[in-house]
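Wait, can you check?
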Amino acid sequence: MKTIYWSVDKNVDKEESYSHIKQAADLLKKNEVVAFPTETVYGLGGNAKEDSAITKIFAAKGRPSDNPLIIHIAKRAQLVELVETVPATAEKLMDAFWPGPLTIIFEKKQGVLSEVATAGLSTVGIRMPDHPVALRIIEEAGLPIAAPSANRSGKPSPTKATHVKEDLDSYIAGIVDGGPTGVGVESTVVDCTDETVVILRPGGITKEQLESVVGEVKMDQALTNKEIKPKSPGMKYTHYAPNAPLFLVDGSKEKIQLLVEEEKQKGHKVGVLTTAENKEYYQADFIYACGIRADLSTVATELYDGLRSFDHKQVDIIFGEMFPTDGVGQAIMNRLMKAASHQVIK
């Protein structure tokens, strides 16, 4: 398959950008799959009502079909068609954070969405992205769009169109390049079907932000207990992993440098994932400064690009610093722990 590549401006009303967006939307209406930018990561979109489109998403990603997809909408009015009820807590969260990096789990309306998209569950995760290109594509398509991250399953999520091209060129109908994404990690997923809101996946909206709107918010036990089956898309299988093994180090930068030297003596090409504050300290074959530790939002923005960069440098092993779990740090460490297969050196 030849993948069409469009470059668009965030000013979606520009004639050339709108023309490209309309072409992408037309492909979605024909049940093809198209990658496009959101404020979190690039999504791989398909018609959420049609099994044939969803099957193409799973095939392109190599994603297990028991892993449900998040549905993206452009207007609140679309929600009525897709869900049975909208709880009061969900209304408050939508008022506060939509459009934005928040996915809300609802009881789905039967017979509307593809059962393949929702993995046969009685619930569905829905969000409204905060990106002009994504919103206009969904609006032009006139459809709810299922859109997991636009990467091969298990690899780091794409925050640039070039990342999508690396993974999915010739696998999908089109890629809409709208520039780098902003947040850098996927949306927060919350379950609003019970009285207390539960975070199923940490992401761009923090626990503290949620609690400022709805009071007490709980964390899904599956986030810390690997024996419990997770309920959220993207949390069941290995994710975000570079080709080389990644080890997180719960210790000083001196400890990390000692580990680097031990591996170099074995003839290994060694990478270090750090931040701007510590970059000059390390002596390794490749060092990636992932934002600044003083502002964890910058770490989130650059995390996936950093993980992918180690593949480009063909390192044999990677040592990574750890981060505090306040605010967006919770999402960062969630992704890093999965990328490292929970391998931590103390």
User: Anything to note?
Assistant: The radius of gyration is 20 Å. The longest strand covers residues 42-47. Residues 296-312 form the longest helix (17 residues).
